Amino acid sequence: MMAFDASAAPALCQTVQIAVVDALVEQGWYVGQGVINPALCHALHRELLHMAEHDALAEAGIGRGQQHHLRKDIRGDAIHWLDRESEAQRHYLSAMGELQQALNQALFLGLFEYEAHFAHYPAGAFYQRHLDSFRGRANRVISTVGYLNPDWPADGGGEMVIYHPDAPHQEVARVIPEAGTFACFLSETIPHEVLPTRRSRASIAGWFRRNASLGGVLDPAR
Questions:
Q1: How far, in Å, CA of 142 to CA of 118, rounded?
Q2: Which domain of life does the protein's organism represent (predicted)?
């Protein structure tokens, strides 16, 4: 795999951080095109493809803990949790750490940590409409998606559809999974789905979390 130059430009600039904060306040979601460092997208994309080619990804399921199970009729991607094993991963997670600080300073959200995984959708895969967190039942507060696919064709499919929080059948945005695009939205209130993709689709899905541990019982990490 090609090494990533950590001295490259920031993954997300301060202007993007401000735009994310403003959009979350105004409408509950943000989408920006061409905002993730291109060299970083390239390195992360190569890393994910290498994992896919060497069977290093796990089939994704739904639910957490004992309720976790595979449902190919709902979700068809394969994942690998980011663990800082590469310079590119560390650079991306560092950028998310800076965004976490900006969100906490501006919105007083008390975000405690960030978790993320690679997501690989083979041709034909999709993810039905869902929320990333149920109100009052989990600690995912803000969801992020960073896209890694270079030269995504107009007929490639795989768009993420964002729906209105108060009208879950009303589409408000359709995000083409092109490298450099970054999306961010409120986990408990913004319904979204991934439409069937017609080619290999690569992204990083992540969540800013609050600490939901109570009475000495640790909240499950994932």
A1: 17
A2: Bacteria
Burial of 107 (0-12, 13-18, 19+ CB in 10 A): middle
pLDDT tens track for 160-197:
999 999 998 899 999 999 999 999 999 999 999 999 99
Nearest alpha-carbon partner for 11 in 90, 128, 84, 70: 90
Tens of pLDDT, residue by residue over 72-85, are: 788 999 999 999 99
88, containing H or E segment: helix 87-107
* pLDDT tens track for 149-163: 999 999 999 999 999
The pair phi, psi for residue 138, each rounded to 5°, is -145, 175
Residue type, 85: E
Query: Between β-strands 192-194 and 160-164, what pairing exists: parallel, antiparallel or unpaired?
Result: antiparallel
- 130 pLDDT above the threshold of 80: yes
Cβ(207)–Cβ(140) below 8 Å: yes
Q: Supply the mean pLDDT for the chain.
A: 89
Query: Under a CB-based contact definition with an 8 Å cutoff, are residues 203 and 146 in contact?
Result: yes
Q: Would you mind telling me the total number of residues written for the chain in this entry?
A: 222
Looking at residue 212, what is its pLDDT? 60
Tell me the three state secondary structure of residue 66: helix
Q: Identify any residues that bridge with 119 across adjacent strands, giving them in sequence order.
A: 79, 203
Q: Which two tokens stand for residue 202?
A: 């690569």
As a whole number of angstroms, the distance between CA 86 and CA 21 comes to 28
